[in-house]
Amino acid sequence: MDAYDASAGEIRVFKANFLWMCKGYYRHNEGYTPDWPGTGDYQGAIVHPQTWPEDLDYANKRVLVIGSGATAATLVPAIADACSHVTLLQRSPTYFFPERNRNDLADTLRALEIDDAWIHEIVRRQVLANQEAFTRRCFEEPETVRRELMDGVRAYLGDDYDVETHFNPRNLPWRQRIAYVPEGDLFHGIAAGKASVVTDEIDRFTKTGVLLKSSAAIDADIIVTATGFHLSAMADVAFEVDGQPLDFADTVTYRGMMFTGAPNLVWVFGYFRASWTLRVDLVADFVCRLLAHMEEKGAREVRVALRPEDEGMAILPWIEPENFNPGYLMRGLHLMPKRGDKPEWRHNQDYWAERKELPQIDLDDAVFIYA
Ligand SMILES: Cc1cc2nc3c(=O)[nH]c(=O)nc-3n(C[C@H](O)[C@H](O)[C@H](O)COP(=O)(O)OP(=O)(O)OC[C@H]3O[C@@H](n4cnc5c(N)ncnc54)[C@H](O)[C@@H]3O)c2cc1C
């Protein structure tokens, strides 16, 4: 791999027998900013959270935050007290999950002086069991969950607040990420009048702020574009195999970890509906097993390939949009590797199944070709 060493200002060459891509799933150097008309007219500062200027002074300023994802939900309560006012402008609402920022079971076990390692294991299992039940309910009784999540917001904002307009998303729950709001911090600012939510669309930027499609205008000294990121398949690295370019969008993924046509390469891609690191652990165990197996066999190369029984298998996009469809994924789906319609040829996003399946992968299955 040729890498540009920015500190030395030179290209460095790295050689390895096995490549483990742990590069996350979005471009770290720049965030996604939609192309709104009139941004050049605006006379205040436009800031993307991914390139937040260290010296940005927002004290006593009117700040407009565009977006209502995890970034906006974290940012708004963090700056609301210092600003004169923060407006969160969203095109469509997001589900939020306000909850206490502590765990009663952990507190009880600590009070009983239970060993820390036990507390960790018990509480971890409780959190996972709760997440599994919640995820299942989002698919089995989505409308009930929708109402419960909206009621959770209403509990902070009161019956007079227009929760139907600002906190009733178009999507069913868990088709995009649900942002956990510790102690309801986002809603305290709204209830206190330090922050407000506007659900509308931007028509264009003006000298003093934005004009909305409803004809309303919002003036602001600073506009923060919490509008998401660029999905990046394989870190935008130009891969070649034996001198031929390799486009990962032309490959089929083996369980979201390996790719047809890409030897000696594993990618870490976590979960959308559970902690990312749960899958990092599983993939790490898989890689250790795979490397040990290669050593045992005296193999220098492993690749995955469709088997005769996979012939004619439907080749589909990385994930079904009905299943999970945030903007960053929909914008970048064409860059992602393909999946098949069999469990082993897809990243199924189901920790509770994979925690049993991945450790049991038969490394001598015909999917793996060693050389
Ligand atoms: C707004 C937001 C909220 C999130 N919230 C949660 C959450 O609550 N829970 C959760 O589990 N997950 C969450 N995630 C997912 C999150 O990305 C992962 O949890 C975690 O950060 C991924 O870790 P990683 O080590 O795989 O990748 P990253 O943390 O993305 O690290 C990748 C590293 O690779 C480097 N890199 C990338 N490309 C190159 C290149 N070409 N050359 C050299 N270096 C490169 C990057 O600079 C970076 O240091 C969130 C993500 C976002 C964007």
The end-to-end span amounts to: 22 Å
Tally of DSSP helical segments: 9
Largest sheet, spatial ordering of strands: 5-14-6-7-10
Overall geometry: globular
**Which small compounds were modeled alongside the protein?**
flavin-adenine dinucleotide
CATH class of the largest domain reads Alpha Beta
Average pLDDT taken over every residue: 95
What is the CATH architecture assignment of the largest domain?
3-Layer(bba) Sandwich
Percent in strands: 15-25%
- Main sheet? 5 strands, parallel
Q: Portion of residues in helices? A: 25-40%
Structural class: alpha/beta
Q: How many structural domains?
A: 2
- CATH topology of the largest domain, anyone? FAD/NAD(P)-binding domain
Provide an overview of this structure.
- By secondary structure, this protein is an alpha/beta fold.
- It folds into two domains: 16-26 and 231-370, no CATH class; 49-226, FAD/NAD(P)-binding domain (3-Layer(bba) Sandwich), CATH 3.50.50.
- 29% of the residues lie in helices and 23% in strands.
- The chain is built from nine helices and 24 strands.
- It has helices at 70-80, 104-111, 116-140, 142-157, 163-166, 185-191, 276-297, 327-332, 351-357; strands at residues 2-5, 10-13, 19-21, 26-31, 45-47, 62-66, 85-90, 96-99, 179-182, 195-199, 202-205, 209-212, 217-219, 222-225, 229-231, 239-241, 244-246, 253-254, 258-259, 265-267, 302-304, 315-316, 339-340, 368-370.
- Strands 5-14-6-7-10 form a five-stranded parallel β-sheet. The chain has a three-stranded antiparallel β-sheet with strand order 11-12-13, with no helix packed on it. A two-stranded antiparallel ribbon has the order 1-2.
- A hairpin with a 4-residue loop joins strand 12 (209-212) and strand 13.
- Helix 1 (70-80) packs across helix 6 and helix 3 crosses helix 4.
- The longest helix is centred in the middle third of the chain and has 25 residues, at 116-140.
- It is globular.
- The model has no long low-confidence stretch (mean pLDDT 95).
